[in-house]
């Protein structure tokens, strides 16, 4: 296992959709170990594989003292009539937090290293994390979800950082 460096904007790996994992081999097992170790740090809620430079569909989470991972996740359910607005940040966009609208509830399905079905669901922070990490795997950042006026402000702040 290894604590991996986090890729930050404008690294193109963050904007590239990740490939599905078709075979669990030593490389994928090492990826999961690295994701779990890297997310297990103060202030980290989730980590997608492309945030450590690997373009495969996998992420880990660290919510309420529970650490886990899922391979080939896909969102299968979102609350359609309940939303949350709250500040959201990202390890790949350090130091910037903006109000981001997300579904109150989210459910993700994928598999584990043994090919068993994994279902991860939750409300509030867990729902936000699931949506945030699947977005990463699809090549999106939370900045892409911001309302137009907030996004303009966020992009200005981002340019000032670079």
Automatic annotation (TrEMBL):
InterPro entries: Peptide_deformylase, Peptide_deformylase_sf. The active site is at residue 133. Keywords: Hydrolase, Iron, Metal-binding, Protein biosynthesis. Binds 1 Fe(2+) ion. PANTHER family: PEPTIDE DEFORMYLASE. Pfam families: Pep_deformylase. Belongs to the polypeptide deformylase family. Removes the formyl group from the N-terminal Met of newly synthesized proteins. Requires at least a dipeptide for an efficient rate of reaction. N-terminal L-methionine is a prerequisite for activity but the enzyme has broad specificity at other positions. One of its GO terms (molecular function) is peptide deformylase activity. It catalyses: N-terminal N-formyl-L-methionyl-[peptide] + H2O = N-terminal L-methionyl-[peptide] + formate. Its EC number is 3.5.1.88. SUPFAM superfamilies: Peptide deformylase (SSF56420). Its cofactor is Fe(2+). This is Peptide deformylase. Fe cation binds at residues 90, 132, 136. Signal peptide: none annotated. The keyword Electron transport does not apply. The keyword Metal-binding applies. The gene is def. It comes from the Bacteria.
